[in-house]
Amino acid sequence: MKRFWFMFGRTQLAPAVAAATLFYGFPARAQQQPASERPIAFGVGLGAAARPGGAVGSIGLGTLDLGTRWRNLDLRFDGAVMSWKGVSGGRVTSLTSNLVYSGRLGILTPYLIGGIGGYAQQGAGMSFGVNGGVGTRLSVWRLQPFIELREHVWSGDRTHRATPLTFGLRF
After folding, report:
1. Could you say which of 69, 84, 114, 131 would form a disulfide bridge with 90 (CB–CB 3.0 to 4.6 Å)?
2. Residues 74-88: pLDDT tens digits?
């Protein structure tokens, strides 16, 4: 557990506290909530990904969401490809499994996401990593546009990490 603290460090404490404060305002339910309205959903996304040292590249994301018995908690599997031109180890492919905690506010659904998975970096091989972040999606018709900001870390010394901002559609 001590290793995970060093992977995220103290710089992620402020965003985590801010996100917890945001979700603290959601109304609590006394009884068990009904099953998710969508048991299975797919999503695709594109965006920009920053690395230490100021390199900015691109990200492509594919998601599979599985609803659980509790409306506010879902399981999500992501496959992503991040690439940066002119940077050593300039391509990273990841497969992650995540828990998504969300709360609906009208047509807006903000969420917290975090999980673990495998990260394959060009020239460095496969390694275990963690990720976490925040996002929101709109519920308009059957397509649900989303935006999310996450931090991916796949080394104990935090030198192998990326921060992607992704825009996408969930359907």
Report:
1. 84
2. 999 999 999 999 877
